[in-house]
Amino acid sequence: MPFSFEPITVLAPATVANVVCGFDVLGFALAEPHDVMQLRLTEQPGVVLIHEDDFDLPTEPSRNVAGAALLAMLRAVPEEVGVEVRIRKTIMPGSGIGSSAASAAGAVVGLNTLLDNRFSKPDLVIYAMYGEEVASGVRHADNIAPAIYGGVTLIRATIPAPDIVPLDAPPLFVTVVHPQIEVKTADARKILKQEVPLRDAIRQWGNVGGLVAGLLQHDYALIARSLEDVIVEPVRSILIPGFQEVKDGSRVAGALGGGISGSGPSLFMLSQDEATARAVENVMHATYQRLSLDYHTYVTTISSTGCQILTEAPQGV
Ligand code: HSE
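A: This is the predicted complex of the input protein with L-homoserine.
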């Protein structure tokens, strides 16, 4: 067999989907946190999953997001080969910062590397979406695409094929707060209205266009004006304690804006500089301490790289 059976290590980033107004069509990769995965080819066909973390995730491949993505990819590989994956997650499942997408994207990027990069990035998005389907019942790509491409991505379409447009964004700092409650994406999708009044749709696509133009033109004021969601946020924000306080306080602290990260419960805010991003973090501290709710914050940036292959495994993997 022409393949190498040496293991490789993949860093798979957290991601923020929707970016307020772009439900299912916009997302970006975060510089931290990330999951660490180690993959190696096996002569035995199929997928073997080993979780090296405290999350109680299924290890049966068809019920696991990484496993389902890998099974879909292996179906397109004519050679008799399998893969063993060791996963150490730090992105908590159900946090709203693309935990399932990190597993699925990291898995397919890793396997592609072991298979001499025979698949294109749009192909990898297709396989990774099988993982998202296990997690939420829907093949959405707004976490997967930025996890694979890095940076900010527009998912213009996924049907009939992924049409992913990487967007050249200006430097942005991201403050994330993860209140320690779990919101399942499947549940957060079920509560959405299936029909949208035309006036709301007009306002929303104005914002999506404005946000994309603001990113491409590096126009921070336009980005700030466009970070508005009149369709999904009014429904989902009721699931997240402290939502309005964080949102209003962050704007007062100088943030450009922000909202629910993916389907929540994490919230994210964008800022032009690190000092503002830290001031926003203080707003989040104050909110969740007042509410006596456990939480975790990150002050980070948009990562221009998606999943990364490490040439040397970090210690403990
Ligand atoms: N666009 C998806 C949703 C992202 O909001 O349901 C889930 O992370």
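Residues 198-216 form the longest helix (19 residues). Residues 173-301 form a domain with the Alpha-Beta Plaits fold (CATH 3.30.70.890).
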